[in-house]
Amino acid sequence: MPHNLLSSLMAHGYAEQHPETGNYRLGPGALQLANRFLANCDLRELAMPLLDALHTTLDEWVVLSMLRAGREFNVASIQSGRSLVVNPNGLGTGDRFGFDPNDGLHCTAVGKVLLSSLDPAEMDALLRSHSWPQRTPQTITNPEALRREVALVRVRGYAINVEEHYEGLRAVAAPVYDATARITASLGVAYPTLRATPAREEEIALAVRRTAAELSLRLGYTPAAETLASLTGRHAEEPARTAEPLMILGGIA
Hints:
Elements: H1 2-11, E1 15-17, E2 24-26, H2 28-39, H3 43-58, E3 61-68, E4 71-78, E5 98-99, H4 109-115, H5 120-129, H6 143-156, E6 159-162, E7 169-177, E8 183-192, H7 198-218, H8 225-232
Helix pairs in contact: 3-7
């Protein structure tokens, strides 16, 4: 039975045999099948089980956004069930889909990650075409300072917001990569400063990064082996799991 199955996979191009070693590997048909899946993939539908699991773990405001025409587009959002929550109506995004009318790319963690997806020419064009309003005393409004902040996000692998968009609000966000290793979305969690203990912030940052890494894997992204192991606890040859709660283990990798 296994031999018949393997023969069928080879006949359809999904597997092939190395002529010298005799070992089997994925064939070009498997790549074509994966490309068809990704071409018809709905990001929100694919992400929701992971976002639900992250929300269950943290019970804070979870947001998934993309960059469209130089603006933040809210793909999915789940509000915290706690008694003290962020008022999404005052921030312009909240539990709805669409563009953020407050245009907080420069002062939100999610927005900074999206800015980090731009190449130098795109970043220059955006800096020239946008104004960067002062939301709070902590908001970065100087284009050169913003450029340095975005460079730090690229090096660090995640972004933070410490009351830069709204006083009393903090956030952490991490990039979601597609199969071509480009940042396709930004996954973030926002929470009140009153709940921002060092241990809690470490827990949130690690959970956000792990969820973003898991979603990236489901989009076909192949990270460095050490990055994958540190964030998800598994190795590159292991398949992406179906939706299940992500365990928070240890500190930030």
